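CO-FOLDING WORKSHEET

Operator: S.A.
Ligand of interest: pyridoxal-5'-phosphate
Run index: 470
Mode: holo prediction, single chain
Checklist:
[x] sequence pasted
[x] SMILES validated
[ ] output reviewed
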Amino acid sequence: MNDPTRHPAYSIDRSQLGAVEINPVFARPAEATEFSKFRLPASESLPETAYQVVHDEAMLDGNARLNLATFVGTWMDDYANRLYAESADKNMIDKDEYPKTAEIETRCWMMLADLWHAPDPDNTIGTSTIGSSEACMLGGLALKRRWQHARKAAGKPTDHPNMVMSSAVQVCWEKFCNYWDIEPRYVPISEDHKVLDGANLADYVDENTIGVVAIMGVTYTGMYEPVKQIAAALDEIQERTGLDVKIHVDAASGGMIAPFIQPDLEWDFRIERVASINTSGHKYGLVYPGLGWVVWRSVDDLPEDLIFKVSYLGGDMPTFALNFSRPGAQVLLQYYMFLRLGMDGFRRVQANSHDVAKFLSSQIGAMDDFELWNDGSDIPVFAWRLKDRPNRKWDLYDLSERLRTRGWLVPAYPMPADLTDVTVQRIVVRNGLSHDLADAFLESMRAEVAYLDALPAPMPSQHKQSGFHH
Ligand SMILES: Cc1ncc(COP(=O)(O)O)c(C=O)c1O
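OUTPUT RECEIVED:
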């Protein structure tokens, strides 16, 4: 903190005020031969030169195909790429200039409302966002405002709102509570309750509870939380206490899996207590990053006083968003994917990822060292831990490091409260992780386990770090 060259929040080492050298092959007469890394250059350079520098730097990023850590889409087909290039200039907020993009946004969330069984899809309201994080914030804010209105109407104070959720929520919910002064009430997961399942909910819910978050596809493991069971626990609380606590379903991943793979599973607006649902278009919606969606059960579930109006075709269009300007292209890409795949196509793509996940989990579960935490039968994501074995010279962090040397990103990390002493490793199977690639991965994994087993001494224990797993 006292080192002025280090930014306390981001740990950027500013003592390295170095320069990016331009390869002599590309250096042009009268142009700079290097750029400062952290200072705006004093003069111009040719587009070719600037392109080459950025291109060469970005090339050093990892290979997205081998990234088994992220949920986010990294591939779209040539027609999508064409659309993307054609629409990269569109600003989502400018409904007046881009009325078609605005209309397509509405078509998309109405399709989602229908897919998620809104009782009256024509009477719902929704929006695109930059991702699920923003979508969750909007869902949470609507719950908060709804609770505030009810409390004020009853002449009761509104200064101590809380929200109830699993200790395994994604960090966006911690942010939501932090940014909007809401007390987060975490229900710890355990070996017996691997997800929030409604048990002991009454110990957490009270008159200041703005809502309960249920997750369809817990980030740590990919497991579904049983929304119906959570709703039943809240029904029981309402019967006893009169408190009517709504649910927001964080279906960042599961919202685009469950309707296709587990169509009979009731987790969505079929459950009356579900007020709003979000998903990430850029996860299993199969679109490039940044796109999220949030839909409310009905227009009544989004308090009117959260809505702003922007001009649209000489009139006004309601908007509810944290950002003002943001890209419109991803919305068009989502619409493209909806038209391109339809129900059947989505079913086939997601079923394929599911098959690969089940195959990989069965193979990893059959290895001597590993015990599955779950098998990828909810969303195509699964985690495993090490079985106890005396004198093992390595742990999952070491295995993660070894796999990285072969290009595979497979994070190891501790579970959240109350399971922080459990370390797991996780694979996210996305479209593009084929059976072939899965075989290649298993080969790498077996080879690296054999390498670690053959070490003459244990791996050093310092500097072990959790991989990116959000
Ligand atoms: C359950 C859950 N909620 C929210 C998010 C945040 O999503 P986004 O990255 O789209 O903001 C994630 C991301 O992994 C997630 O898994």
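REVIEW:
Residues 71, 131-133, 136, 170, 172, 215, 217, 219, 250, 252-253, 280, 292, 470 surround pyridoxal-5'-phosphate (CB under 6 Å).
Residues 82-338 form a domain with the Aspartate Aminotransferase; domain 2 fold (CATH 3.40.640.10).
[x] output reviewed
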